[in-house]
Amino acid sequence: MSSTYSDHFTMPEGEDMPPLPRVGEVGPHVCSTVQLYLGVIDDLADGQIEIIGEHVRACADCAAVQYLMQGTTNVISDLPSLLPSSRVDEAVREAIAARGNGRGYVEPTSAEKVGVLAYAGRKDPRKSGEGDAALSILRGRRKRPHPSSTPPPPLREFPKGRRRVGLRWGVAASVAMAAIVLLSFLAMMHFVPGVGPGPQAYTLPATLSWNGYVIYHSETRIDAHGARYRVNTYYDPGTGRFHVETVMPGSMDVVAVGDGHSTLGMDMMHHVAKWQANGWSSDESMFDLPGIRSDIKMSRAAFIDKDMFRGQAVYRIRCSNGLVLLLNMQYQPVNVLRGAVGPGTGEPIYDTLVMMPSSHVTGNMWDMRVPAGFKMGKLPDRP
After folding, report:
1. Is 82 left (phi over 0), alpha (psi -120 to 50) or beta?
2. Does residue 127 surpass a pLDDT of 60?
3. Quick one: angle between helices 86-100 and 110-119, nearest 10?
């Protein structure tokens, strides 16, 4: 925010200010840091301003905060340089001193009356007879009525010149004070846990992408006979490729590799392969980011709240299929819950879920060629 003084405050050092986010980094913690730096934008170096500007251009929430701060600066800078008369200070000090000394009611002097009414934009009460309400507050003879219980008295006609100045000052001061209170509340939300809008106020950042990652998850399932088996899945959300291995130790090991168009199933125990083995693939719609954006936009999916899951803060999104997707503070998948109702409820579907850079996954993971020594045939039934 622009300063009306010629000297600028020194930027805090050490741990007083959080580090600037990296270019392209997203999440509520990034917005909190950026909005904090927006308050001291005039004191930042050119490189820092460029980082902040890059985020604001891509983030509607931070752009709105910047607009609010700039508007508040403009309102305050346009305020007239008016100060109440020193007689008002004297009257207030004497009234406070009188009450503090237990002297009860003390009749205001003529100077006090003139000072109070001058501050209210009125004439000398000795000449006009106005100002009884203002003076009664100073005298302590009656309480100020509550605005919801008693309508305010109609405004009296003041001299035109005096009234114009008084109203301009009053309206401008009211707007400025409202803006300052709002900015103070916004600043408080950055530092007070549990204060401020919940995740319902957020949408998925426009710059968010899961491309360049492979989502690995492992799930334990139980067949119709009570036997346990595991399903390990590698899913590339950028290309739609998947590698799913279903293992029941000693009796079954089937791998399905697909690209969204074709699926090759391979029985690794009996060396049998089969094309279009779609029954051995997995449903990865929970990690379809464009689909989630569309569902949120069309109200088929929605943010529920912010919660804790296995020691980390997460956002909960109820998807169109009724399951709840958990995202960390960088909007990356953490797990999926079934049966979630209130905070802390729901059963995680996956034993493990990890976001891995694509470079950490070997290319043969997506190999859809029939291995040497395999024959084409029928795969076992899926549990």
Report:
1. beta
2. no
3. 120
* Cβ-based neighbour number of residue 230 at 10 Å: 14
Length of the chain as a residue count: 383
Amino acid letter, residue 203: T
Residues 6+ apart with CB under 8 A from 343: 305, 307
Instruction: Give residue 8's identity as a one-letter amino acid code.
Output: H
Q: Is CATH 2.50.20.10 what the domain over 210-383 is classified as, yes or no?
A: yes
User: Which residue, 322, 293, 328, is CA-closest to 307?
Assistant: 328
pTM of the model: 0.51
Domain residue spans in the chain?
Answer: 86-156, 210-383
Neighbours of 57 (CB within 10 A): 9
The candidate with the shortest Cα–Cα distance to 40, out of 77, 66, 58, 71, is: 66
Model confidence over 208-248: pLDDT tens digits? 999 999 999 999 999 999 999 999 999 999 999 999 999 99
Tell the residue number behind the tokens 């990652």, with chain if given: 213
Task: Kindly list the strands in the beta sheet with 352-357, ordered across the sheet, starting from the edge strand earlier in the chain.
Answer: 352-357, 213-222, 228-236, 241-248, 252-258, 263-267, 272-275, 375-376
Nearest Cα to 204, choosing from 23, 348, 31, 341?
Answer: 31
Residue carrying the six token digits 């001291």: 40
Ranking 60-69, 195-204, 216-225, 298-307 by mean pLDDT, the lowest is 195-204
Mean pLDDT, range 36-58, rounded to an integer: 83
More reliable by pLDDT, 347 or 49: 347
